Amino acid sequence: MFAVSLGLQTWFDGAVMGLTYGMLAAGLVLIYRSSGIVNFAYTEAGAFGASFGALMVIEWGWPFVPSMALAVASSAALSGVVEVTVVRRLFDAPRVILLIATVGVAQLLLLCRMLLPDVEGFRRYPVPVDVRWEVGSATVRGDHLLVIALVPVLVAGLAWFLSRTLVGTAVRGAAANAEASRLMGINVKALSTLVWTLAGAISGVAAIAVRPLQGLPVNSSEGALDAKLLVVALAAALVGRMTSLPLALAAGVVLGIAERVFLLSWPDDPGLFGLVVLAVILVTAVRTRAPEPRRARWSFASQGAPLPAALEGVWLARNLGRIGAACACAAAVALPLVVTTPSRQQLSAEVVIFALLALSMTVLTGWAGQLSLGQFAFAGIGAFATAALMRSGLTFGLSVVVSAAAVTLVALAVGAPALRVKGLLLAVTTLAFAVVARSWLLGLDALDDGRPSIRIPRMVESGIDFGIQRNYYWLCLAVLGVAASVVSRLRRRGIGRGFVAVRENEAAAAAMTVSPARAKLTAFGISGALAGLAGALYGGLFGRLDAAAFAPETSVQVAALAIIGGVGSVTGAVLGALWVVGLPALFGSTSEVKLLTSGAGLLILLMYFPGGLVQIVHAARDAVLHRLAARIPARAAGPRPPGDALLRVGDSLDPGARRSGLDAAPAGTPALRMADVAVRFGAHRAVDGISLEVAPGEIVGLIGANGAGKTTLMNAVGGFLPADGRVWLGERELTRMSPAGRARAGLGRAFQNAELFGDLTVRETVQVALENTHRTSLAGTLVAWPGSARTERAQRARADELIAFLGLGRYRDAVVANLSTGTRRIAELACLLALEAPVMCLDEPTAGVAQRETEAFGPLLREIRDRFGITMLVIEHDMPLIMSISDRVYCMEAGRIIAHGTPQAVRDDPAVIASYLGTDERAIQRSNT
Length: 929
Prior knowledge:
With about 950 residues, this protein is α/β, with parallel strands linked by helices. The protein has 3 domains: about 5-120 and about 145-270, no CATH class; about 340-550, no CATH class; about 670-925, Rossmann fold. A 6-stranded mixed beta sheet has the order 12-13-14-9-15-16, with helices on both faces. It has a 4-stranded antiparallel beta sheet with strand order 8-7-10-11. The protein starts with a helix and ends with a helix. The model is unreliable at about 290-295, about 635-645 and about 920-929 (pLDDT under 50).
């Protein structure tokens, strides 16, 4: 029916445009397969080549073919240079950081394109053959022929290269396992450069092909490969699961046809196609496997080094941060009294508003670890909602509050489906939302009332005329001050610690009763409220705006701004706004200067100061404090306080209340029971129908060779893996509970790697676990309710008790990332005690612990069991330890139980000797020690 009503031309134009989408998607797939990142500079490299080619043909009079060959070569060379200078330096950083770096590269490439000489007049983009053929009811032009001739050949050649050549096979192998490829003598770095160069060439060809199809003049800014085009190409790549070139090409064609059909079927609502693209990205991103995160840690610059011990009694040193903040606030308040020009006061207010936007990124990205490239879209919704509410008769102040609440709901609606999308693909999803907001959402009649622009008049409220620019600046500054105070308090309390815990280690956070989904959704809501508030103030600042003012590219700039300042710090949000928005004003606020401060600044900081500008501030402050500390005479060291030696157990710790129903269970009910638990990975059964029981107060050992399925079984019991079978804690069935729900029910879990939360201190880490018994209220934290402060004090007191009990006193304020593995093990044990869980599942608790402390670990576990009545299921390879502490032992092989009973019976079992202990008499004798 569409074919009859829309005609052959519609389908043909859509298919041709879709071929360019498919070719762009092919380049994205190529980089993703080799480097595991989404290259946001990819289309900008092609746009530079296309502009350079047009300059050669139109201004310099060069022939089309050699000009375009040089243009494609320039795109390829730029992409290769980016790989050598940026990607290689950040290769071991998390993939999300590399993605952000490509945002900075894209802005620098845009600057390079802007510096090219202009083409005189408004000329159509050149094509090799300017022909028009009539084929039935369709017209075929020269730009159509260029796409039809090039795209299928290039994509087919690329697919052949990857699947049929040795170099292509090496590229795929290096992407799958770079370390193994290096051991085989493959130059992984050279292959990466080759792939990026090829992708740059593909982007150049796509840009040259798409510019004539768009029908825009060469000098038109709309002719650039903008966010919308990138998002459509990403949607096509995701349909191919970022791996299949033919699927990506086919998806591009389908999307191109769908775009033409939607534009002609609903010409008054062109943004509907964006909704289709967003839906495609959401559905496919959930099914696409993101690359494994890098193990390298990243600096979030949330705080400087601890205060030197010599200065702990000096009031000035302890309060240096507060004094600096007070001085900065005083200067900000006095600024409009010194700078009296209204235009400069307006610029100052704009800096403040962007600092508020960066603050929303601090909560969402810096703490919760969710990279959003759609924050300015939330700001746009806040501005449009404020205008709509004021048209209905509400005052400006009330409209701002209500619109911020409305944007919070929108952020929650966006965040809910996005929770199933992780890492790089979440950034793609939120960028797609920004495109939809700009093209469709902000055009809804409920927001703009059918007008081409919105108007937010400033009124006189509470006797203050906010039409005066100075007063409006003070209003924006007051809102930022309140928001910064609330956000700072949020980070110091349990909600903020939960955000950081989820960012650092989702599994460990869930094991401490923090729900990762709830934490992320809460962060989305808070960041949305801050962005909506900033958008309402932004609309009031300029008075009249349209949807074009909230372009997706500005959302990307907001992300760059937050990272430049220091995305994990409230101070960094202000510094980033000053650098990206305020600094260019000193040099005329030209586009070139703005791109230089945001693009070049972002790259320099990522490569040399990963914590942002605030890292430099912290380094300077720490240097001054250490210099002062060196001038203070060292005090004689007194006796070490009790509890400062690891594994030295204290005597006065309150065991806490057991929260489960184990005590009320009938006599003889196992504390932990599992029945027919099975875990499958494809056709492989890692755990094959295991049933076992642990009685109350019992320590049960779980032994077996590596790969026997011990950790997999424990992960299934904790809810971290999908599994068949059933699990009970006392009489309560846990089978359908989430990991956080099982932890709240009383099932403690310690992990094999003991990574915990690298960006938190030991005290903060224990406090995360204490959320189970001393729950922090979000509302109470936001409004500074006295009960919230009491909860925080109770948490700190209990955390200090547990830290002293296990001899971690001198590590109380140390960041977990700086601790040894053995010390982290003890900190993890403190967290389990903080949970007050009646059942603990410990996975190799002595791995990485020094031998002397390993020998003390066994008696410690037994003392904890005896003192607190805790039941334990322990995986351990140290046979003397596990045999000495266990009441019973299970031995696993190939996912099944092959023996169980007393330690002596299992030790002497022939199947255990053959499978695990071995037949060497010395090994058996050692196990009897």
